[in-house]
Write a structure and sequence with these properties.
single chain, binds ligand NAX, 14 strands, NAD, six-stranded parallel sheet, alpha/beta
């Protein structure tokens, strides 16, 4: 039996975590032979911590073979002690009348200290996935704070995998293929309505996707449906995506840690100049993972249609960055 690893989850009493925790505990994320110690973090509010105790009672009641400990924390300095994998799900939601800048700043107050605590307390090889919105900029804030404590910004990713999975599913339905027959899907940029799901390099059963669907469908249905899927779920369910978000987080971390066997997945990673996206934002790119490391897929041709959309989502990320620039220096 392998040595247990520590997995921290913030927002542990929230709805995504209610699905995520049980998937991790059952071995879906790190494999059926990897024991885990769960570090569950929440805000120091008695009712919230009480609710989290209920979730822990249910974890106990599952008698999971892989679970070797469950901790509850409300201080990141204690909660990230020895953490190997962190899923930062808890975030400040947009309140009534709250401007975008206020939302970004409020989240900076959460993700800056969490980045600092991860650098101070977590395993030096920790891998961090930011799910809480605005995920890309929250990841930038956490990575910047953690870099001052010695971690590499490449250890911090933002989740665009839900968008990637939604895009795969839409294309599979349209072409009558199975999800597993879709390859080389890309979601570029921000996890927001400016994201760009790109079929330019995508294949369906080995054939170019663009030979199977027409441009009008791509522009009028595929791209808007994927971009607006979160809002459509809220309209139908009365609540935002939770189980699908948890499933995407499991997919992202599993692929990062265990590898993608040459397959492409979309990951929000620090921009490094690839495809003309200057350093300074966390941007959705096509990635391949091997031996616990990711690499941005290089050498893809970018046509004018894609260029315009990739730049538009980059512009939005630079605007988000400008709104919290002072927090990056703090
Ligand atoms: P919930 O409101 O159900 O739960 C969030 C939990 O986070 C709450 O229990 C809250 O007390 C906790 N929290 C807040 N600040 C915290 C802190 N500093 N430390 C620890 N816990 C803290 O939201 P849920 O539906 O679970 O969604 C969580 C986040 O995921 C939201 O920001 C949401 O917008 C985001 N999403 C991101 C997605 C993505 O693809 N990147 C998709 C799904 C989701 O919309």
């Amino acid at each position: 039996m392998k040595k247990p690893v520590k997995v921290a989850i913030t927002g542990a009493a929230g709805q995504i975590a209610y699905s995520l925790i049980f998937r991790i505990a059952s071995g879906s994320m790190l494999g059926p032979d990897q024991p885990v110690i769960l570090q569950l973090l929440e805000v120091p509010v008695p009712e919230v911590l009480e609710k989290l105790k209920g979730t822990v009672m249910e974890i106990d009641d599952c008698a999971f073979p892989l679970v070797h400990g469950v901790e509850i924390h409300s201080d990141p300095m204690a909660g990230f002690e020895g953490t190997d994998y962190a899923l930062l799900v808890g975030a400040r939601p947009r309140g009534p009348g709250m401007e975008r800048k206020d939302l970004l700043t409020a989240n900076g107050g959460i993700f800056g200290p969490q980045g600092k605590a991860l650098a101070a307390k977590a395993n030096k090889d920790v891998r961090v996935l930011v799910v809480g919105n605005p995920a890309n900029t929250n990841a930038l804030i956490a990575a910047t704070a953690a870099a001052r404590g010695g971690l590499d910004p490449k250890q911090f990713h933002a989740m665009v995998r839900l968008d990637h999975n939604r895009a795969v599913s839409q294309l599979a339905t349209k072409t009558g293929a199975h999800n597993t027959e879709i390859e080389k899907m890309i979601v570029w940029g921000n996890h927001s309505s400016t994201q760009y799901p790109d079929l330019s390099h995508c294949t369906v059963r080995g054939k170019p996707a663009k030979s199977l669907v027409d441009q009008a469908w791509i522009e009028k249905e595929f791209i808007p449906t994927v971009q607006q899927r979160g809002a459509a779920i809220i309209k139908a369910r009365g609540l935002s995506s939770a189980a699908s978000a948890a499933s995407a987080a499991v997919d992202h971390m599993r692929d990062w840690v265990l590898g993608t066997n040459g397959k492409w997945v979309s990951m929000g990673v620090p921009s490094d100049g690839s495809y003309g996206i200057k350093p300074g934002v966390v941007y959705g790119y096509p990635c391949i993972c091997k031996n616990g490391q990711y690499e941005i897929v290089q050498g893809l041709s970018i046509d004018a249609f894609s260029r315009a959309r990739m730049d538009a989502t980059d512009t939005e990320l630079r605007e988000e960055r400008a709104a919290i620039e002072d927090l990056l220096k703090a």
